[in-house]
Amino acid sequence: MRVSPILAIVFVYVAAWAQSSPQKPNSQVPPQTPPTQAAPSAQAPPNQPPLTQSVTPGASAPSDVEGSDPESVGSVEAAQLLPEPPPAAKGKLTLVGGRIEKVDYVRDEITVRPFGGRNLKIMLDERTQIYRDGAKVLPGALRGGEKIYVDTVLDGITIFAKNIRILTQRSNGESRGQIVSFDPGKAELVVNDALSPEPVTLHIVAATQILHEERPASLSDLRPRSLVSVKFRPGSEGVVASEISILAQPGTAITFVGRVTNVDLHTGLLVLEDPRDKKTYEVRFNPSAIRINGDLVEGAEVTVTADFDGTRYVTNAIMVNSGPASN
């Protein structure tokens, strides 16, 4: 069939117009979504490092992990790496007052010279609480020559310090020492306190109470070389004695009844605790001449009559009343 030239031109024009005009989208065909990345496989290829790596405690996080905090990924608190402190020692607390002879930070121990005794080594650690004039301080605050009071407890065969109190200021307190002199005109009593490098001057006022063997005494009983226990307080004129208890006077005999805390039959030393004042007393004796009635061991209850010669208690007989108390 022959097509006329005019009809052919029309067909070409219509085809060109159809191709150039925009097509309306079909409402029934859902719009296509952009292609998504394929989910990563459960296991990374052998030649590809994993996205997460295990981190040992204390090590920093890998630098190739984006969005990770090097200080937080796999980190462990330093306190968690330290060993747990040992449990607190259980036992009776004993107050030791004295002066620091030596501080050993390597062995964590201090050497204290207590009142009326020999040097004593006391251990301490992070459980020990240390105070200076009532304020809590660090262990580095301990210095040789300072006056301290220590709450000690026996941990096996080691003496452990639970609390240490450093005293640099005088306030209300109690002391024990020996009378050096007494001036009635000035009402001043000078006491050689073993915990003080210099004798202490105490002022006696009208309210000062003087006792001897728990009975009222007079100013005339304050004789040199007598052992006294003094309660004091600060005053406008200095340190004021509120109570003076005369423990022993030279040439007098004292009877002790208490429990033995320490005994050394070779050196002739007996230490006992008097239940009346809860204080310990050292009594000296001649090992070759002492008369002992009973089994003299630690914990036994004894009766001792000792003479005070102006410096120490001395006895020549010890009576054992009973053995150690059963727990």
Order of helices and strands: HHEEEEEEEEEEEEEEEEEEEE
Superfamily (CATH H level) name of the domain at 173-248: Copper binding periplasmic protein CusF
Radius of gyration: 44 Å
Q: According to CATH, what is the class of the domain at 173-248?
A: Mainly Beta
Indicate the percent of residues in helices: under 10%
Q: Per the principal axes of the C-alpha atoms, what is the gross shape?
A: flat
Neighbour order of strands in the largest sheet: 3-2-1-6-7-4-5
Overview of the structural elements:
The protein starts with a helix and ends in a 5-residue tail after the last strand. By secondary structure, it is mostly beta strands. The chain has helices at 5-20, 78-81; strands at 94-104, 109-114, 120-123, 129-132, 135-137, 147-155, 158-166, 173-183, 188-193, 200-212, 215-216, 227-235, 238-248, 253-264, 269-274, 279-284, 291-293, 301-308, 313-314, 317-322. The longest helix is centred in the first third of the chain and has 16 residues, at 5-20. The strands form 3 sheets. It has a 7-stranded mixed sheet, with no helix packed on it. A hairpin with a 4-residue loop joins strand 18 (301-308) and strand 19 (313-314). Among the domains are: 94-166, OB fold (Dihydrolipoamide Acetyltransferase, E2P), CATH 2.40.50.320; 173-248, Copper binding periplasmic protein CusF (OB fold (Dihydrolipoamide Acetyltransferase, E2P)); 253-322, OB fold (Dihydrolipoamide Acetyltransferase, E2P).
